[in-house]
Amino acid sequence: MMQLMIPIGFILARLLPGLIGEKVFLRKLNTFVANKQIPRSEIIFLSLHRMTFIWFVFAGFFRAVLSSPLKPDIINVMRKFLTMILLYSVTLVLARLTSGFVTLFVQRTEGVSKSLLSNLAKIAVLVLAKLILLQTVGIQVTPIVTTLGIGG
């Protein structure tokens, strides 16, 4: 039981900075950007919504896994799993950014559906990210990409 106290402590130690980062730091940064009237900043803040807290918690989990008294094989599997989750959360931020900037660009043109192009851009980013995640896990994506090229 005492061996698990250190990993649990790492997780709990990341919760408070995550909450502070999400509630205080991003709010102050948002106020600063609003006062300086930096254009298009709302897209960045909307894409980062809730992600800073998640990243702090993942850092705690990652450190907890590394310091846990588990077998090395289990630690490697958990590290890969946490790496995949972290990469997917970064992908979600990039997909939100892409969608926001595509929507912004399409607003200037007439006759083009904003939601269609925005969703297509988001889907493209998510598909590429899933291929990268599969490659990270060790699954060969070359046959998948070849099949998509032939079938598409």
Question: How many strands appear in the DSSP assignment?
Answer: 0
Distance between the termini: 54 Å
Q: Give the low-confidence spans.
A: none
Report the order of strands and helices: HHHHHH
Overall pLDDT: 83
Radius of gyration: 20 Å
- Fraction of residues in helix: over 70%
Envelope shape: flat
Overall structural class, as computed from helix and strand content, comes to mainly alpha
Major sheet size, sense and barrel closure: none
Number of domains: 2
Q: Into which percentage range does the β-strand content fall?
A: under 5%
- What's the tally of helices? 6
Strand-helix topology:
Blueprint: H1 2-36, H2 41-47, H3 51-67, H4 72-106, H5 114-137, H6 142-151
Overview of this protein structure:
This protein has 152 residues and is mainly alpha-helical. The chain has two domains: 1-69; 73-152. 84% of the residues lie in helices and 0% in strands. It has six helices and no strands. It has helices spanning 2-36, 41-47, 51-67, 72-106, 114-137, 142-151. The longest helix is centred in the first third of the chain and has 35 residues, at 2-36. It is flat, with a radius of gyration of 20 Å.
Brief description of this entry?
This protein is mostly helical. The protein is built from six helices and no strands. The radius of gyration is 20 Å and the shape is flat.
Key words describing this protein structure:
single chain; flat; 152 residues; mainly alpha
